[in-house]
Design a protein that fits this description.
This protein has 15 helices and no strands. The protein is mostly helical. Helix 2 packs antiparallel against helix 11 and helix 4 runs antiparallel to helix 9. The chain is globular, with a radius of gyration of 19 Å. It starts with a helix and ends with a helix.
Length: 320
């Protein structure tokens, strides 16, 4: 058993050294959120599914944290990670879901929030002193074009949503950018298990309060609803945000943000496999452009390796 445990640990640490593994994990898990939202909102309102998604995730992460990772958390750590959870999870998801409920098409909302890589690249220089090269700007612009092609059909959907509903999508994007820059700006030794646990509990409290206040706390008696809630809790919350923070520790903000360009194409593939949604020629072209753009953006190898080494050292300390 000891040999098996050490072998499993060695494999896990080896996987963590691969930027490709981290990137693929993030894109797949993050994209799963749109599928989970589609499954869940067929059974209940967005506030109900958000509330129970985070309650399930908080219970699972809390049990895991108490069993394997229980540590003494300082008040500063709780406050810092709580704020990150409120902006990266709470505000981001609430604004996206509410804008769609108010009539903004999913494609339009997706396109607005996918402006994050450009916003992050514009701010990362003055805030973090990380330069963005001309090649990276070209890759960001190319990726935006690819996303536009992917969601083109959905952009044509007639919408009577009020202007403030579109503003919500912009606020969602700004909220995630702000949390990303804040996390990257401060060197932190907080382990991923602690980070996800605190952030998810804070989000669960927020959405539970909002669900109760709006009268949407009661879940439907439906197996499909609980399947969707479990899907979102496991893949999107634990997997999506877990891989997001791991990628951020291992690479530059511009590089990590650019991975969001791959989420619309992967979401289309999810939809094709699960729901039989059609994929047109423009969508395929957009997918290829998105992949090309992320490849073109790249990241400084030396800086990336230094961050990955730091992540691996933290993970090694955790297992000791």
């Amino acid at each position: 058993m000891i040999m098996l445990s050490r072998a499993a640990q060695a494999i896990w640490l080896k996987l963590l050294k691969s930027p490709l593994w981290l990137a693929a994990g993030f894109v797949i898990m993050w994209s799963s959120g749109f599928i989970g939202a589609r499954l869940g909102t067929d059974e209940a309102g967005s506030m109900t599914i958000l509330m129970w998604r985070f309650i399930i995730a908080a219970v699972v992460l809390g049990a895991w944290w108490g069993w394997r990772h229980r540590t003494r958390l300082t008040l500063r750590t709780v406050i810092t990670q709580g704020l990150l959870g409120l902006f990266a999870q709470g505000a981001y998801l609430y604004c996206v879901f509410l804008s769609i409920e108010m009539g903004v098409s999913a494609g339009t909302s997706n396109l607005i929030t996918i402006l994050q890589p450009i916003a992050a690249a514009a701010l990362v220089g003055p805030v973090l002193k990380e330069p963005t090269s001309l090649k990276q700007w070209g890759g960001l612009a190319l990726g935006l074009l690819g996303v536009l092609l992917v969601v083109f059909e959905d952009l044509g959907v007639r919408s009577e949503a009020p202007l403030w509903a579109y503003v919500l999508s912009f606020l969602a994007m700004i909220s995630l950018v702000g949390a990303t820059l804040y996390e990257k700006a401060r060197p932190s030794t907080v382990r991923l298990a602690d980070t996800l646990f605190i952030q998810t509990v804070i989000s669960a409290v927020l959405f539970s309060w909002m669900g109760a206040a709006s009268g949407q706390a009661s879940p439907p008696v439906s197996a499909d609803f609980w399947l969707a809630a479990a899907w979102l809790a496991g893949f999107s919350t634990v997997g999506g945000y877990g891989f997001y923070w791991l990628n951020l520790k291992a690479g530059s903000v511009t590089r990590v943000s650019s991975l969001l360009y791959l989420t619309p194409p992967v979401t289309m593939l999810w939809s094709f496999l699960m729901f039989g949604d059609k994929i047109g020629i423009l969508t395929v072209a957009g997918m290829l452009i998105c992949v090309w753009s992320v490849t073109a953006i790249g990241s400084p190898r030396k800086r990336q390796n230094r961050h990955i080494t730091h992540v691996n050292e933290m993970e090694s300390e955790r297992h000791e």
